[in-house]
Amino acid sequence: MPAEALEVRNLRKSFEPGKPDPPMVLDGVDLSLARGELVTIIGSNGAGKTTLFNVIAGTLAPDRGQVILDGEDITWRKEYLRARDIGRLFQDPHQGTAPDLTIEENLALVYSKATRRFPLALALHKKERAYLIDTLAKLDMGLETRFKAPVGTLSGGQRQALTLLLATLVPPKLLLLDEHTAALDPVAAKKILALTVEISAAHGITTLMITHNILSALETGSRTIMMHKGRLVMDLRGEERNGMTVEDLLERYREQVKENLDADRLIFG
User: Per-residue confidence at 110, pLDDT binned at 50, 70, 90?
Assistant: First the structure.
């Protein structure tokens, strides 16, 4: 079994490939993650964070480079096939669930795919139902009391908690979190972030998390990466990261890229 869960090698992507010397959205990105590692990613708008996720997930094809997951080259694997191994949460809590179906039915669909039932079942066996109600209760979001409620009636925090559970019910090899707390109120965001760390650690899930909160990026997981104009310009870990403040990071950024960080949408504390 390979030591690295995810390897990204020399990824390059432009949305204007026909132009001479086109602007690169990803400009030679190299990145590797150890199995079970939780890594945060920060950067200003246009840094290439979501594009990197889209290439890893298979939503976009790279112009050049490789994506290797658990030792397998998946660079050209179809997105729907990668979805078996890659879970993804988005900023919008409405993505990732079927709003007209109940909590039970959403969970049953995931269970059906995992157990390869055919046709897909919208009901759970008694033991499965008891296990999932107990799992929902551990989230401490009141979801266990709304098992028969349509997902569309849930609050944003409840819905994102359910989406996180759905994405990890069958633990993926890789979990991609694209600002998954950004649309939530501060209390719900803090709770979802804590659940994310807890679930990722409990299942040993390799996790990449884009966040707009710099302090949260420095305090969550074991490593923080900063992107700028399609490149990785910082990779902070160990003692260097543990002792770093937001002010330290901003100063390092100025030294590295010779300009101030574009603070649009970024939160510093």
Answer: confident
Of the pLDDT bands very low, low, confident and very high (cuts 50, 70, 90), residue 118 is very low
**What local confidence, expressed as pLDDT, does residue 119 receive?**
46
* Alpha-carbon gap, residue 78 to 59, rounded angstroms: 8
Claim to verify: residue 205 and residue 162 sit in the same structural domain: no
Check whether residue 243 and residue 178 sit in a common domain: yes
90 is a domain residue: no
Q: Are residues 124 and 204 in the same domain?
A: no
**How far is residue 186 CA from its own chain's centroid?**
19
User: Which CATH number is 73's domain given?
Assistant: 3.40.50.300
User: Which residue type does 10 have?
Assistant: N
**Segment 148-159, tens digit of pLDDT:** 999 999 999 999
